[in-house]
Model the fold of this input.
Amino acid sequence: MRTMAGRLGSVGVALALACALGACAAQQAREMNSMLAAAGFQVRPANTPEKLKQLESLKPHALLQTQRDGAPYWVVADPTVCQCLYVGNEAAYQRYEQLKLRKEYADEQLMAAEMNEDAAMNWSMWGPWGPWGY
Done:
């Protein structure tokens, strides 16, 4: 039978994990917003109740293609960080895709460098590990 302290500890861990995941999602949204702005997307604030309602009806942080006056446009709803809509034309979308690819490549390079650094570490100098060495 679990004690009250054990249950509270589990709740605390769950809350900490939820907060960490929320912070991660917010960080990813901020990174996406930065890349959208750098690519030339325009920010349209949801500054009326009608705009806010429509913004909240869209899938958050997803690129959606739409047509306006016969031309393709890309929109991204951000109801969490800026409460705005990012709007870009085809050229802005292509620049965003290039920035996204560059970021993915840079992230892969960083991960590979960190793995190589870890592999090069001399962990044996710290003595034996495992149940016998703790």
Notes: Helices lie at 4-39, 49-57, 90-120. The longest helix spans residues 4-39.
